[in-house]
Amino acid sequence: MKIASILPPNERGKEDTLAWKGNEDGKFSVKAAYTMLKGVPRRDQGKTWGGIWKWCGLEKVRCFLWLCRHDRIMTNENKKKRRLSTMDQCSKCPTVTETTLHAICDCSLAKPIWMKLGWRWLGAWSLELKKVQLEYDSLLAIKLIKDPPGEAHPSASLILKITSLLNREWEVRVHHVYREGNVAADLLARNCNSSSREMLLYRSPPIFLVQALEKDKVGSVLIRKADS
């Protein structure tokens, strides 16, 4: 889910920055504004819905996410819109309107919970591995890491966190590989995504990974037409 990739409030992070939602980099452009005014659907429209309904989890949580996406949670703001209340302020933050985002993230009651979430990287660093090679099949993600965008980018905070990890006292090399050449890692990511555990360590290959490892062992070749 997208919410899992969004960093919670962090005292060491940067201040919130205004960003233009019409472009992926958060920067305003006349073309994007014209497209929005014309009502042309965005390419990523519908991805959020697919992510919600394909998510492996409790039905009540899925329904809650659906309500949040539709802005149907009965916050004080929505109550006032429906004339069920004359006040739209948060009961705990009187100077702020209680929107859905405020209720689940920015409220003085919710924010401390987000702040307590552990964001330690429990992988190679905790195992004291000082030379690490990372292979990833998303060329866009690697470009963002190697050439960080401006603060207006929607993923600026996450990219800052990643680069701060890479800049620690160790040697980390990040390389792009095609998905066909990274089948084992792709399978691990897809199968572990539904786990509720913070970290999974396998002492032996899980069943879903055996076939991919066997093919890699014998040197099976997957052909892919790639752009030059």
From TrEMBL:
It comes from Senna tora. It comes from the Eukaryota. This is Putative ribonuclease H protein At1g65750 family. Residues 28-114 form the Reverse transcriptase zinc-binding domain. GO terms for molecular function: nucleic acid binding; RNA-DNA hybrid ribonuclease activity. Gene3D superfamilies: Ribonuclease H-like superfamily/Ribonuclease H (3.30.420.10). Residues 124-192 form the RNase H type-1 domain.
